[in-house]
């Protein structure tokens, strides 16, 4: 004997029912078969709706009944040969009249009892099963009303089956007939008074399990519209994987926690009899689906799936008066039970100072009232605080038989969530160690499940979601490098970098599946007008795991939003130097936020572009070294200018060349004034542990003050006017056989920048093109400094430094 159950979507219309017929025909070749069917998809809702409308005195119920009748009559006409249609049509018509009569009564009384509701709801399965039996008449199908076989109590809408009587009735009936194929309605049963009852929404699965268990079936097949159970809800996790094999216990845990593929009570009866349950897809019958059995082979992973339940409220009862007093929790649970409030999760700290339970959001008010009433005396006398109710939460659970006795699973789970800023509000784990349950904000569910899926299942790659501000010189090169490396990173580092948001000063663009970097310019141009706050809000609201905000602007305002991002665990990578060279307080705050919210705040390119200056300094510090002195040339622009200026070509033209080659700041006056170098030496001093501000740094500027007045065009014009000044600077140094270098120094708490004459004996003398050099004098490098030298400006090298920071943030 085998039992096949088909859900509402599988029998939603004539086309689908014909697919079902094909599947049953094949099955019939193997064994005697019981087919359990749900109502035509959506019909149960329509039936309940008509009852509710009638009870509310709304005559619209007649229209809803018409829709129901129409759907069934049409299905009969499409499925049953014309010669045999009339008896089936007339049977359907009679049932529809019965529903109408009941609803008319409800309308007149203005009352819908639980009993009547079950009577109305039952017609869905009655009519679908009758229709399908008629369709399979040619295959010898026998229609049997399950209400004659399944006995329940009178708890309408969620009746409990009286198993021994039911088993006996089913066994007797099937022993008394010789037919091979039976079609029975799921979901419905009857009580001792022969009144119709129902087994709860999803109860057709349960009906099938009851038949399978009573008949000692060899197999129970649950045919639905998905190809089995998955590692996570595929609507939330695009990379969710099918689970070909899973144990009864795991299936129950996953189903309880929201994987709606199978109705949870279904497992119990078949598990007792060791009957395998095969979840299959009606619309893809060749797909393997999920086979649920007692013993399932290890799949190398300690967890089988991730499940969630939304709309959870946490109730917390706290108070010193609870400690050491037996009976508090008993009273709490009795109070909830008295109002039929189901408890989804319980946690109690060993201090006994608080008990916390999770229930459905919809029951929160009722729960608050009954608990506050129950503990009124204790609350008034201050022994217990009034109940704390926190709504809009969700449960996220890891499920797997193999978690048992494997240390590290919960560490991995909470570590991954913590790194992504998912705050865990409560935790529960039973001693079966089959599930670890956490409660998180409803708004974090999607992120939490994806983070966990990536951590436990996605050996293929890790997704990193970028929000990129700035598409100029450096930004443009960065985008090109990201595009060029996408494939390599996916294949070699298992990283999938996606640019989800992109902005320049005029436009912004978002694409959850990632912006196509081959056509970003056109796409961004067609984007929406840029609003910095909206860009930040989007990055926060999307709440994607492994999010990184990349600031490739030179903009002060952009630098002010880092705190909003870090506090949402979004890492920040910046080549913009404004944040790190603003007040020490803000710089410190950003570092603290990054630590607090497990995010990265990386700005390697703030000094020396792509050179490993800040990283090296941090390595020295982390390993216990102390930086005593720094001597450096930190301006690519100024080094280029002084390397290329000898009084022949005008100074202004050399500066322009530096700008055209992409070495200067967007505003070149920042380079020429020495401000850019001040920022850099201050950042190095701060990273060395010094609390410096810009005012603390002396700057011996070589620029005539007149050059710094007006616009950038005025700046160039005035530099041309001041050519004699620059010639004199050059000539003086050349006369001494020296070179002009704009040098930055930090020495035991003091920092300075300025133009110096550097002789051939000096460490800074042999420095060409746009190079930078940094000399670290430390406790471990007291005489011969640690030297970092190389190209210190240019869009390509800067972009690669930003890229490297992104990869560091990703890890
Ligand atoms: N060029 C170099 O060698 C190095 C540059 N840097 C830094 O790189 C940064 C970028 O420099 P470039 O690419 O040369 O500048 P750029 O002027 O070519 O590009 C700046 C980009 O930022 C965008 N932007 C400006 N304000 C914005 C806002 N409020 N919101 C969104 N986008 C905005 C602009 O539209 C433009 O796309 C600067 O902070 C610079 O200090 C750092 C190290 C070396
Ligand atoms: N404008 C800067 C670029 C890097 O920060 C420089 O010239 O060094």
TrEMBL record:
A Pfam entry, by short name: NAD_binding_3
Catalytic activity: L-aspartate + ATP = 4-phospho-L-aspartate + ADP; L-homoserine + NAD(+) = L-aspartate 4-semialdehyde + NADH + H(+); L-homoserine + NADP(+) = L-aspartate 4-semialdehyde + NADPH + H(+)
CDD domains membership: AAK_AK-HSDH-like, ACT_AKi-HSDH-ThrA-like_1, ACT_AKi-HSDH-ThrA_2
Biological processes annotated in GO: homoserine biosynthetic process; lysine biosynthetic process via diaminopimelate; methionine biosynthetic process; threonine biosynthetic process
Domain ACT: 398-473
One example GO MF annotation: metal ion binding
Cofactor: a metal cation
Keyword NAD set for record: yes
Origin: domain of life: Bacteria
Gene3D superfamilies: Acetylglutamate kinase-like, Aspartokinase, catalytic domain, Dihydrodipicolinate Reductase, domain 2, NAD(P)-binding Rossmann-like Domain, VC0802-like
Subunit note: Homotetramer.
Functional summary from the UniProt entry: Bifunctional aspartate kinase and homoserine dehydrogenase that catalyzes the first and the third steps toward the synthesis of lysine, methionine and threonine from aspartate.
Protein name: Aspartate kinase
Annotated source species: Pseudobacter ginsenosidimutans
């Amino acid at each position: 004997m085998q039992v096949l159950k088909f859900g509402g979507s599988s029998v939603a219309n004539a086309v689908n029912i014909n697919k079902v017929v094909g599947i049953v025909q094949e099955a019939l070749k193997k064994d005697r078969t019981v087919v359990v069917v749900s109502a035509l998809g959506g019909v149960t809702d329509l039936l309940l709706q008509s009852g509710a409308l009638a009870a509310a005195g709304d005559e619209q119920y007649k229209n809803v009944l018409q829709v129901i009748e129409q759907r069934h009559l049409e299905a009969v006409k499409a499925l049953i040969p014309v010669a045999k249609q009339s008896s089936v049509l007339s049977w359907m018509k009679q049932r529809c009249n019965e529903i109408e009569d009941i609803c008319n009564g409800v309308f007149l009384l203005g009352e819908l009892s639980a009993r009547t509701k079950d009577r109305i709801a039952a017609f869905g399965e009655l009519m679908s099963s009758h229709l399908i039996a008629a369709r399979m008449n040619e295959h010898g199908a026998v229609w049997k009303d399950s209400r004659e076989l399944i006995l329940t109590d009178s708890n309408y809408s969620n009746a409990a089956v009286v198993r021994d009587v039911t088993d006996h009735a089913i066994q007797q009936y099937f022993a008394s007939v010789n037919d091979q194929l039976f079609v029975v309605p799921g979901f419905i049963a009857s009580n001792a008074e022969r009144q119709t009852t129902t087994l709860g929404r999803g109860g057709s699965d349960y009906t099938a399990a009851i038949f399978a268990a009573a008949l000692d079936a060899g197999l129970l097949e649950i045919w639905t519209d998905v190809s089995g159970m998955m590692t996570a809800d595929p609507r939330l996790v695009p990379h969710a994987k099918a689970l070909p094999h899973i144990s009864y216990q795991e299936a129950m845990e996953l189903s309880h926690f929201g994987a709606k593929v199978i109705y949870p009570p279904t497992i119990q009866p078949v598990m007792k009899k060791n009957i395998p349950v095969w979840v299959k897809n009606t619309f893809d019958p060749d797909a393997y689906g999920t086979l649920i059995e007692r013993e399932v082979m290890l799949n190398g992973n300690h967890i089988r799936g991730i499940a969630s339940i939304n709309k959870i409220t946490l109730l917390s009862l706290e108070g010193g008066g609870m400690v050491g007093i037996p009976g508090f929790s008993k009273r709490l649970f009795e109070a909830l039970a008295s109002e039929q409030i189901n408890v989804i999760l319980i946690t109690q700290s060993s201090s006994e100072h608080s008990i916390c339970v999770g229930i459905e959001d919809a029951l929160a008010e009722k729960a608050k009232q009954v608990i506050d009433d129950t503990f009124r005396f204790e609350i008034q006398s201050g022994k217990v605080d009034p109940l704390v109710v926190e709504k809009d939460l969700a449960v996220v659970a890891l499920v797997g038989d193999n978690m048992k006795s494997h240390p590290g699973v919960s560490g991995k789970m909470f570590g991954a969530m913590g790194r992504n800023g998912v705050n865990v509000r409560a935790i529960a784990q039973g001693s079966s160690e089959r599930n670890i349950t956490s409660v998180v904000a409803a708004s974090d569910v999607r992120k939490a499940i994806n983070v966990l899926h990536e951590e436990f299942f996605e050996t293929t790659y890790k997704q990193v979601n970028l929000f990129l501000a700035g598409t100029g010189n450096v930004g443009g090169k960065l985008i090109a490098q990201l595009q060029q490396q996408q494939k390599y990173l996916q294949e070699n580092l298992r990283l999938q970098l996606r640019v989800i948001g992109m902005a320049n000063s005029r436009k912004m663009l978002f694409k959850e599946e990632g912006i196509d970097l081959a056509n970003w310019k056109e796409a961004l141009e067609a984007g929406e007008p840029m609003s910095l706050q909206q860009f930040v809000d989007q990055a926060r609201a999307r709440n994607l795991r492994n999010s990184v905000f990349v600031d490739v602007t030179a903009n002060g305002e952009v630098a002010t939003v880092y705190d909003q991002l870090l506090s949402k665990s979004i890492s920040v990578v910046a080549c913009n130097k404004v944040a790190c060279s603003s007040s020490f307080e803000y710089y410190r705050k950003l570092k603290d936020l990054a630590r607090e919210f497990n995010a990265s705040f990386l700005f390697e390119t703030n000094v020396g572009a792509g050179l490993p200056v800040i990283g090296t300094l941090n390595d020295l510090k982390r390993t216990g070294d102390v930086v005593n002195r720094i001597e450096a040339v930190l301006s690519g622009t100024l080094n280029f200018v002084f390397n290329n200026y000898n009084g022949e070509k005008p100074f202004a033209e050399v500066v322009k060349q530096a700008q055209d080659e992409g070495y200067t700041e967007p505003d070149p006056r920042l380079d020429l004034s020495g401000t850019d170098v001040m920022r850099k030496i201050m950042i190095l001093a701060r990273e060395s542990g010094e609390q410096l501000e810009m005012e603390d740094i002396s700057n011996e500027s070589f620029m005539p003050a007149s050059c710094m007045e007006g616009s950038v065009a005025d700046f160039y014009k005035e530099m041309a006017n001041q050519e004699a000044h620059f010639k004199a600077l050059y000539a003086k140094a050349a006369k001494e056989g020296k070179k002009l270098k704009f040098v930055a120094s930090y020495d035991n708490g003091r920092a300075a920048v300025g133009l110096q004459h550097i002789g051939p004996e000096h460490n800074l003398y042999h420095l060409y093109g746009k190079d930078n050099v940094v000399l670290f004098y430390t406790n471990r490098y007291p005489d011969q400094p640690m030297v970092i030298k190389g190209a210190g400006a240019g869009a390509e090298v800067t972009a690669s430094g930003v890229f490297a920071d992104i990869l560091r943030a990703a890890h």
